[in-house]
Design goal:
- This protein is mostly helical.
- It has one domain.
- Helix content is about 55%, strand content about 0%.
- Helix 1 packs across helix 2.
- The longest helix has 12 residues.
């Protein structure tokens, strides 16, 4: 359902990168956690 270009994914990934939110706070919606995690891992 979600991909790397989805607005929800970008908002959560940015919040985690900035330190405003933790990865554990990402809602369990469809594949949201997996896509956000992949973006965070690519940035490291």
């Amino acid at each position: 359902m979600f991909n790397k270009n989805s607005m929800v994914v970008r908002v959560w990934a940015d919040a985690v990168k900035k330190g405003d939110k933790e990865l554990s706070e990402v809602p369990n919606l469809s594949n949201l956690i997996e896509v956000v995690t992949s973006i965070i891992e690519e940035a490291e």
